[in-house]
Amino acid sequence: MMNEINKYVETHKQRFLDELFELIRIPSISSIPAHKPDMYRAAEKWKEILLAAGADKAEVMETDGNPVTYGEKIIDKKAPTVLVYGHMDVMPVDPVDLWKTDPFEPVVKDGKIWARGADDDKGQSFMHAKAFEYLAQSGKLGCNVKFLIEGEEEVGSPNLPKFCKKHKKMLQADVILVSDTSMIARDMPSITTGLRGLAYWQVEVTGPAADLHSGLFGGAVANPINVLSKMIAQTMDDEGRILIPGFYDDVAEVSGKERAMMGKAPFSIQEYKKSVGVKELFGEKGYTTNERTGIRPTFDVCGIWGGYTGEGAKTVLPSKAYAKISTRLVPNQDHKKIEKLFVKYFESIAPKSVKVKVEYLHGGPSYVCPIDLPAYKAAEKALKDVYGKDPVPVRSGGSIPIIATFEEILGVKSVLMGFGLGSDAIHSPNENFPLEQFYNGIRTLPLFYQYLAEERD
Amino acid sequence: MMNEINKYVETHKQRFLDELFELIRIPSISSIPAHKPDMYRAAEKWKEILLAAGADKAEVMETDGNPVTYGEKIIDKKAPTVLVYGHMDVMPVDPVDLWKTDPFEPVVKDGKIWARGADDDKGQSFMHAKAFEYLAQSGKLGCNVKFLIEGEEEVGSPNLPKFCKKHKKMLQADVILVSDTSMIARDMPSITTGLRGLAYWQVEVTGPAADLHSGLFGGAVANPINVLSKMIAQTMDDEGRILIPGFYDDVAEVSGKERAMMGKAPFSIQEYKKSVGVKELFGEKGYTTNERTGIRPTFDVCGIWGGYTGEGAKTVLPSKAYAKISTRLVPNQDHKKIEKLFVKYFESIAPKSVKVKVEYLHGGPSYVCPIDLPAYKAAEKALKDVYGKDPVPVRSGGSIPIIATFEEILGVKSVLMGFGLGSDAIHSPNENFPLEQFYNGIRTLPLFYQYLAEERD
């Protein structure tokens, strides 16, 4: 089968790119309400993609938020069913002045596609459409295939759980297949077996009712930026431990043996520091860098603002200060419990000289995939065929909150076979996706279906 | 003389407003380079105002920054000479959505002028032009008058010291008269006898070279917002004491007797809290509210920003975080020494996981005016004539850095006879200036000149 796929990819290379670029050009930023019409344009585009690829049917379906696109091709009720999950929405593009090219006008340069969504997740989702196209057109499809492409992944999929409950039967599958993660390196395939959970809040601290002159009032009225800074400082100690009471209570401690195994993964501190551009790393005392991102929770302020932020100097004692605050969670931590613990803690440390409002923006649980799952084995074999090496199972620091929810509602495990690379700058300026990974993804996925069908036979 | 002035003001009321409004409509924001042409427009407008009022000459003069307008009327070399100092530049108008009217389109409502600069300092400076007009037109001017209206007060007058050195002879005077402060209340006149100094910095904290995905890297790479928050928190303790080593070394301690006298000024904690809209005040332990703003230094973050600050949630570990940080200084503190102490402290507490850059934006020394100065006495009598009460000497928390510099370079003391009120919202949205104060200023100032000339006789 491999020779045939390679030939198919070679023949249709340019068309695949042209089609992907049409999808990328739609600025489907789910966190900005003004882009709502773009969410519908993206959903319609996905319907068109699935029908053109060979789906029996495809439709744009409403949720309580942005629409999803669902499509399917059922070949045989006895064959295994794969539900492909991906997302059509993308992150905002701020700070836009750091982009070297227009985020929504994809460019191929240095062997990579440069654009918002090139990897996360338009590029990766689109590989599935093209792998499916090959199988459907060549008559070699050995599984039933369902596609669920959603439009709110980047804001925590707030409306998808309800949609899943409502359409449980339609979404029934043996396994969910997802490409929304990365592999260790272009010559070192890996499969993500764990994801961190997430809880995300917005905090508003109000001091005086209006901005005040910092000379006339400074020293006598609490400054909300000073106060917010102190509250943030009070949430993590100098050794990287989070100080919210009860925060670590449910954290699944990883055994010494397992940590020793994780420690064998190839990793260079020097390379890592160089790649992120820092002289020294900082993280929780007593854990390695990979442990800090893989098995330990975090506390990061994702954004902060307040007072005068223009050019030059303005002497103001501001009325308000804001922060967007996130924690990454690990297995056994309940994001709904953490949500409340943080609110309680932040309210408890707020001095009476200010008003504090904490709003929960979104969150989701963590996830673990067992490596003896038949679909995991199929993914392993497919990746070995294309990359020539057995893929390594890894725990990722990122979150795809809906993955744990799928398990809870649909009772189906997910296999996270991502083709991104650490250098793809997802969520950042100059997001990119190597052409080699894009085409390798399209080459690998048909083999996954073949091996999965064989497992069943 | 009073009846005559009152009649003059009554006759020309509307014209005074119309002329002031032309000045206010020029958006002369000195901290924003794009407004440079407006600074020249404002300077030309002031030249026109002074010549129309009766100056012998007036001209727009260059400095190394924004231009100044100088004008004079010399009646007699033996008469006392008053140098009127004011400024034509204004503060930025952010956050502009909190303004109820266009900041640069003045409106009269509820007995007040509403606009940026209505008080600070276009409205207050303009009173001097109209008082001078009355004296010049009526032939009752008993002093030589010089006007120096500058365009960089709100950014700390960085180029005026050099200008003063160059034009020392031209600016020679017996006293400098300034209306750029406020009085206790509309029925309680006061004269400002002390001003706090100022030092103002911008801090940039850089973590990773680019924004990172907070899931993939969070926990392993220092977050510059977390770090900056901690550094700010480390600069003031829970009792409002500033922790920069050496910061308090030169602070002039005020005697218990003097503090007791200050404590007699009418003041209601409840009214104060209500006026700023807070439930509890916060300031340095061991000092009253008026002491905290009058005789003690402060540490206020005037602005902070970094990471994602748009709508919704973006999971990012940002590359950079910024803050605009100011301290108010009291007599004997040297702003140039404090500048260095802060930079040294902030660099010393920065962890090696980030890069910290501290830029000094501007600063100036504090100032004290003796209450036995002949010009102070003249101001006292003039205010009593119009307001019916002896004015109270007060220490203001604000800063006019150039006032101490005038003393240093020109050897001349300033009398700070301000007609603003605490409710004028200077530097804030909805700045305003009561018409009553505006007209009372024009009524009071000619009396000042009369009393000062009498002192000399």
From TrEMBL, chains A, B:
GO MF annotation terms: metal ion binding; peptidase activity
Cited InterPro entries: Cyt/Met_Dipeptidase, Peptidase_M20, Peptidase_M20_dimer
One example of a Gene Ontology biological process annotation: proteolysis
Domain of life of the native organism: Bacteria
Keywords: Hydrolase, Metal-binding, Protease
Peptidase M20 dimerisation domain: residues covered: 193-352
Protein's name according to its UniProt entry: Putative M20 Dipeptidases
Species this protein is from: Proteiniphilum saccharofermentans
